[in-house]
Amino acid sequence: MSNPRPAAKKNTWLMPLLLAVIAAGGSAAGMYYFMVKRGMSDFGMTPAAAQPIQAAQPIFVPISPFTVNLQSERRQPHLLYIGLSLQVSDKQTQEFLLQHMPQIRSRLLMLMAGQKAEELITPNGKDVLSAQILGLFQTPLATPQPPLGVIDVLYTDFIVQ
């Protein structure tokens, strides 16, 4: 018959080994959580500088509303009352556009006079007009002209009558 004593010796070293493996796994999981999930630095274990992300302040160039006669397929007189703001990327572009506002308004009036009322009342017509307005800034307003950062055209007033 075998001795029960050797079986008890086998189990005595198994329990500390199992506890050590569990402790190592828990320690690794804890380090992963704090370093990756919580944003801790690699070595110092100090929280990473959590600075709030602030969006850049948008810069707009307002263009006073104006009224223009529109073309019509039915030979009826139509008017467009439109107010705009141009979103620009930098202060240099903003200052340049403000200095050349009479030229910009003149170009806009000429562009608007060639529009058809039936097209402008649709959302797609407004999108096409926005693209045409952005295209106006491809032709230089002055020589030499710095690169202009006109990002978007925003309608503040838009009435077709």
UniProtKB/TrEMBL annotation:
<keyword id="KW-0472">Membrane</keyword>
<keyword id="KW-0997">Cell inner membrane</keyword>
<comment type="function">
    <text>Controls the rotational direction of flagella during chemotaxis.</text>
</comment>
<keyword id="KW-0145">Chemotaxis</keyword>
<dbReference type="GO" id="GO:0006935">
    <property type="term" value="P:chemotaxis"/>
</dbReference>
<dbReference type="GO" id="GO:0009425">
    <property type="term" value="C:bacterial-type flagellum basal body"/>
</dbReference>
<keyword id="KW-0966">Cell projection</keyword>
<keyword id="KW-0283">Flagellar rotation</keyword>
<dbReference type="Pfam" id="PF03748">
    <property type="entry name" value="FliL"/>
</dbReference>
<dbReference type="GO" id="GO:0005886">
    <property type="term" value="C:plasma membrane"/>
</dbReference>
<keyword id="KW-1003">Cell membrane</keyword>
<keyword id="KW-1133">Transmembrane helix</keyword>
<comment type="similarity">
    <text>Belongs to the FliL family.</text>
</comment>
<keyword id="KW-0969">Cilium</keyword>
<feature type="transmembrane region" description="Helical">
    <location>
        <begin position="12"/>
        <end position="35"/>
    </location>
</feature>
<dbReference type="GO" id="GO:0071978">
    <property type="term" value="P:bacterial-type flagellum-dependent swarming motility"/>
</dbReference>
<dbReference type="InterPro" id="IPR005503">
    <property type="entry name" value="FliL"/>
</dbReference>
<keyword id="KW-0812">Transmembrane</keyword>
<keyword id="KW-0282">Flagellum</keyword>
<protein>
    <recommendedName>
        <fullName>Flagellar protein FliL</fullName>
    </recommendedName>
</protein>
